[in-house]
Amino acid sequence: MKTYFFFLLIILISIPALAQKNQEINYDSDRTLKNEERYPGALILSGIENQVYFDHDGIEVWCDNAVFYKKANFFKAYGNIRMQQGDSVSMTSKYAEYNGNTEFAFASGNVKMKRPQTTLETDSLFFDRLKQQAYYRSGGKVTDTASVLTSTEGRYFMEENKYSFKYNVVVTNPEYTINSEQLDFYSESGHAYLYGPSTIKSETSTVYCERGFYDTRADNGYFVKNSQINYDNRILKGDSLYFNRERKFASATNNIKVIDTINNSRITGHYAEVYREKDSVFITKRALAASLQERDTLFIHSDTIMVTGKPEKRVIRGYYNVRMFKEDQSGQNPMSGKSDSIYSDQQSGLTKLINLSSKGSTKPVLWSGLNQMSGDSIHLHSNTNTEQLDSLRVFNNAFLIQKDSIEGYNQLKGKELTGFFTDNALERVVIDKNTETLNYMRNDDQELIGINKTLASSVEIFFEDQQMTDIYYYRQVDGKLTPEEEFPPNARRLQGFNWRGEERILDKEGLFAGEEDPELTKIQGIALPDEPEEFFEERDEDDLLLDKNSRLNPKVLKNRKIDSLKFKSRKSSDSLKINPNKADTLKIQTDKVQ
């Protein structure tokens, strides 16, 4: 029994020892020499008819010549090198090193690593087979089925089919160019994740973001954090943006802004769609359009706003619960209005307030100072040169109401109303066809002398400082001034009277009065990339990634600033050319890279 346990203990102790034993590198060579003076303890392998061949734990290497330190399980390969790992990874270079104990390789000189979907090219590459990761820090290029990606530093995670590029990242595609601070690229799917200030630029648009996703093969993307899309004449901003190049479509969600750089206008809201080919914008959720004119600004708010047409023929349409406010620099002559829908043609300067319902409360209404005008539809005409209001027309059931300075309401009604403006202030109004008026008449001391009710074919009213000063009746049919006490209270309002002064919009904030803030869509963010472990791990001084006979000094195999390792063929020596830079000075010492 004791003997049985003794042998079992020996077996258990031996298993880890066997597991830790490194597999030896196998080789084949047409010629094998020794040169103890130059390469102590090494075999010098050369190909004559066939290349030198190495085989180690699933990796195969072919080269013209090699120096093989068999005891150290390490070799240096020269000339027309080809490495193959299974069916998925192949690499070519002019020079390479490989340590069978650490399964770590280094290659330089026109390095090309090929995968089914991509080809990586660089001047020097580190390859850790245990981690299944490749790394360069001296500039590299990856060619995908659709694009070419370049960067100063790059790392390839083979198990994930993922490249992580840093510093001066550029993606070149026939349709666009991407510039980014950091980009993660998945070669199997063609998906790219952008981090830091990044742009995607094409002939028709430029996308900017500080965090985003882009499908390089389907040409669509999703962007967050300070993202915007610049078209030829429009800028789209929002908390998140979606972009589809093939459909020429973009959408934005939450805190969005669409800026028209040609017509100097801006639309805000919380959801927008832009169709570049059709020159149209759709916006909703607290939608607000602002036409930023030199002298004043026109604001339009509605449930939904659409902007269509080429830059020189822009048309703004608002649907449902339209509210309008027009300010001017003097602050004395603001104008506001309400309607079911609105149509504004920036080229002609025509704005229409349109009724879509038979309910009286939804009929278009317009306030100029204390004057309220309403009807089935209202047209405003602006002078496109001076950018000021020129005139207005009210069609069908035109009604003008002005609150009397003390009590009651001055009222004028007819079939149509035409108004004329000077410096955005209402100066004159003409009401035609079957007009009726009811006015509170006062003397110079503002004492009421009676109420005048008149029927006429048409009426002309003049204003000064937004107040009625003179009224002229044409083809008067009937008119009478009646003392107040003799005028019945229930007859002091003309048929169709509807004073809506409490709805008057006095400032920009009033456009949203009584409305609840919309419930914003929860943005699906893009998480920052997981910080991977450093490519080079800390090692003891006597535990080398390559070997003491490597060209690379152990200091090179450390995580450090960007450097440039350049290969140069030299007949007289076995050397690696180093281009020092200011950040990290490298020197050649006895065939070592520092």
Describe this structure in words.
This protein is mainly β. The chain is 3% helix and 57% strand. It is built from 1 helix and 39 strands. A hairpin with a 4-residue loop joins strand 21 and strand 22. The N terminus is likely disordered. Keywords: Cell outer membrane, Membrane, Signal. Pfam families: OstA_2 (PF13100). One of its GO terms (cellular component) is cell outer membrane. This is OstA-like protein.
Find the count of extended strands (DSSP E, 2+ residues): 39
Query: In CATH's first tier, which class of the domain at 363-499 applies?
Result: Mainly Beta
Q: How many strands, which pairing sense, and closed or not: the largest β-sheet?
A: 35 strands, antiparallel
* Rg (C-alpha, Å): 41 Å
Helix content: under 10%
Low-pLDDT segments:
1-20, 567-591
How many helical elements?
1
Structural class: mainly beta
Shape: rod-shaped
Label the CATH architecture of the domain at 363-499.
Sandwich
User: Which homologous superfamily in CATH is the superfamily of the domain at 363-499?
Assistant: Lipopolysaccharide (LPS) transport protein A like domain
Q: In percent, how much strand structure appears in the residues? A: over 45%
The overall pLDDT average reads: 85
The fold-level CATH name of the domain at 363-499 is lipopolysaccharide transport protein A fold
Distance between the termini: 59 Å
